[in-house]
Amino acid sequence: MLHVALANIKTYARRYIAVILAVAIGTAFLAATLAVNTSTRATLKNSLGDSYKNADLVAFPDWSMASSEGEESKDLSMSNLDDVRKLNGVSTAYAIAYSAGEVHTADNGYTVLTSPVSAEQNLGGMELVEGRAPLRANEVLIDDSHAKDMNVSVGDTISLNSQDTAAKNYTVVGLQRSSTDPQISGYALLGMQEGAWTKFAGKDFVPSSIVVNASGNIDAVQNELKTYFTDQKLKNISVLTADEKVIKDVAALTDGSDQLTMVLLVFALIALVVTGLVVVNTFNVVIAQRTRELALLRTLGAKRKQIRSSVLIEALLIGILASVAGVALAVGLMAGLIKLLHIYVPSMSYATLALSPIGLVIPVIVGILMTVIAASLPARRAMKLAPLAALRPFDSASVKNRAGKLRIIFGLLLTLGGAALLGYGAYKGELPIAFVGGLFSFPGILMLASLFVPSSVYGIGKLVAGRSVAGKLAALNAVRNPGRTTATATALLIGVTLVSMIMVGGQTAKATLNNSIAGEYPVDVTVSLFDQKADPAKTEKLAKEISNIQGVEQSTTFRSATAVIDDPGSSEDAGLQLMAVDPQGFEKVALDPSIVPADGEVVMVSGYLKPGTKTMTLGGETLKVKESKASLYTDIVTFDTLKTLKTVDANSGFMGVLVKVDPKLDSAAIGKLVDQIVETAGVERYMVDGGVVQNAMFSQIIDVLLTIVSALLAVAVLIALIGVANTLSLSVLERTRENSLLRALGLKKKQLRAMLAQEAVLIGGVAALLGLVLGVAYGLLGAQATLSGMGDMSYDIPWLQLAIVLVVSIVAALIASITPGRRASKLSPVEGLAAE
Amino acid sequence: MTSETLPLTDYAVSARGLTKSYGHDSTRVQALRSVDVAFARSRFTAIMGPSGSGKSTLMHCLAGLDTADAGQIMIGGKDLMSMNDDELTMMRREQIGFVFQSFNLVPTINAKDNILLPLSLAGKRHDRDWFNTVIEALGLRDRLNHKPHELSGGQQQRVAVARALLTRPEVVFGDEPTGNLDSRTGAEVLSLMRTSTREMGQTIIMVTHDPAAASYADTVLLMKDGQLVGSIEEPTVASVTEALASLAE
Ligand SMILES: Nc1ncnc2c1ncn2[C@@H]1O[C@H](COP(=O)(O)OP(=O)(O)OP(=O)(O)O)[C@@H](O)[C@H]1O
Ligand SMILES: [Mg+2]
User: Fold this and answer.
1) B103 lines ligand 1 (CB under 6 A)
2) d(CA A725, CA A488)
3) Transmembrane residues, as ranges (chain A) (predicted)?
4) How many domains does chain B have?
5) Is A45 within the bounds of a domain?
6) What is the complex's ipTM, to 2 decimals?
7) Are residues A36 and A71 in the same domain?
8) A633, A656 contact by CB (below 8 A)
């Protein structure tokens, strides 16, 4: 039967192009997902293992080792290192320890990590690129890539200090290879002579591990080390071989990437379901067209089983071809991406493409199985036909595929049950319940699709067609085979539903977060100069400068101070942090007028007050309490009031600027604005905070997530659109004679193309429309379930984005109709009429 | 009935020097060899000839479904050879009716919509009286709401005839319109066609293999090897059978 199958594939090659494309994309997605996982692991192993590359054993504090009750365990320290070096069988040993410091070069300051290096002890795991090891206390190594950034070379002098040690000058005597460990490679790495480092970091500094090279039997040395640490009462120290340690580190770090893989797998699954629909459709049509041919074979004596297996062999061959192509595509894509990464992100040079045999075989098997299973359904249906029935000239006007009763009942149960759970979960704010509800109801709705998709397509088609015959015919043709229309539309509907759900959910999440965050901050932006002594003149000047930035509406200064309170309830002298403001200026930036204090008043949050509290004694003064419903981090008084109060920190405390931002700015503009404020004020980014800043950050995070998820779902939508093109071209092939008849009777070429375009747009547009409706419902309910615990929901539907989804679907459907339309109109009426 | 008797424009359909070949070089087939032919108005003409003699090709070219290699075709005073595809389509829509051997109707729409299809494509309203006349004549009154697959073969052909007549075209072409029908239904359809020439003045050109079908026509034209080789006026089954037999020799 193999040769029959091969001949068939050759004959019907054109019909299988879409199937092959769809299956290839689906399997490519799956293969890429698995390759991402293996590659992440390999990359991490490559980089994390960097520190122990030439080591035999690693001793490190292992917090997963339960310490026995009562006894306090001692921490690892540099003094242990000296002991370890004296142990039997230890040839070299060094500590891996990173202590933060600050380096100042001639023109700039940097945060760096310092680590101990001993010339005799394997250079502390470093690799020299240039120069020599630091031998004296005032010599250091710098890693080469950061040396370049800092504009430092061998022979230069730099100044180094930490929080506890004063600045000292060091001479750069060598460059070491930069670390590829993602946990530390972000900072410049300074190698210091071991003794000097211990002094710099402090002798109690806890190294993250001690790395040992053994001269004798590794097991013996491992035991020796274990005994040593037990004797020293270092309970939590594990001693592992270097390989074991790397595996452990990778496992700890890849928890996240495994989740990523799971998420990607879900998307791959969606893509595969959509692919399955395209395959079922194609085989349905191909087999329907061959029903007579197959029936002829049957009357000539072929057994049912023989014919079915011939169809399945066909599917198998196509599955193999497409899946292998898909996996190859995925491997090529991943290799390309990693190459790009190597070229454009030099610090990622350790990124490795890793493929596991399983990761390659599984997608191929899944692709083949899916194709064969999808093909077997229509094959079985065709085989049920009695040979003679199939030979009778049959009219393909409209195929009635009755949806199985069982499927309808099952779908109804799933839909209703799922919807109930979803509603309940949304109402109660229980995401897991709502999630399960969605998981049940969506497939349920898809099972019922045959009940509402064709009628929607037809109804909308008739509505749009008006009096145009071509339009009416298009509407009729679009639902000629309700089963096929349903499957084609469902494929697209799945993708559109998910995309729009994510969009609506994301938008609502943004709006809700906006609301709840805005309520938590008294002003848009707060610039706190807590690294500087309070300096009213300087702060005033800064406020002016900030108010000149585009997008800033108002600014005013504030002072933070802690007032003494003598609470009869508490024994010790307690302080209350206050924010002092100028009431005129503050009124202009405050988001809630109820928080502006008058002289002699303190604004406090009502929730924290005993009901009926009218006054409060603060810093030796009795102040009138003004209650505010807004949530505040600190209580607020005026500058003048503050002057009368006794404060804990009479001279310290700090000042800052409060800013009101143009409410029309979007999150990107606010991000830029914050950058400008940071620059103008000359402060670190974390010193600039406020509702607007938080909002912008959340919005950006949500936007990035939305973009990624939409991009992943776009694969499913793409496959579905291939399905639309496929269905249409199969229909064109099926309807050659009919189209020729219409041409003979006076349908212009242009009208024929328009008719096919309308058909595609109807299926695509209605599928997208239904998907949007479902997606909006799921998005709102999902957001409600997720976020209602955070306070008031603000529902927000991104109409523009949804409209774009609809337009893209319609345009894509139009594009999908071009090739079939051209093929149909190229045929002269005579040729078409002659075709059998 | 040849082109010499009347100027071309006075005929419903006429052609001069019509030549058409298929394929290239070794597979080249000369389907029409410079055919000169003219069909007078309000006449029912049958074209006969052995299989492969070029009957369908001639009809397709005359009807603007296919383009001839050379020659001139006039329908209702208009030159088909100079028309582009859209103009030809308009021509077919408004001036030509078709009845094919099978697959005459668009399966998705009912009989009435099929009958009205050419008019709807042109965006024109139909003449209600004329519609009723045609429907009554063809006995389709109670079949109008049926889909094609709910109609018998004969009924389907009658719907096709109604469609062809409704636009009052310059000419109706039929390619073996009764080829798929049993003799009784075939006879029904043929007498309808004859009635439409007699009573409605419709010009009809029909390709057929069946001498009995041809006997309904006013004139039979005989074709062989892509050429017209003779004609029979007032044909009978016997005269046609005889003529065909002599052609085969
Ligand atoms: N599309 C085509 N390609 C190549 N040759 C063709 C094509 N159509 C017709 N021919 C050839 O042209 C010649 C005339 O064909 P035509 O169909 O006009 O014959 P016909 O008289 O209608 O025959 P029949 O009675 O069998 O229908 C035949 O030799 C046929 O093989
Ligand atoms: Mg023929």
Assistant:
1) no
2) 10
3) 16-36, 262-288, 309-338, 350-375, 408-427, 433-453, 487-506, 704-733, 754-779, 799-818
4) 1
5) yes
6) 0.86
7) no
8) no
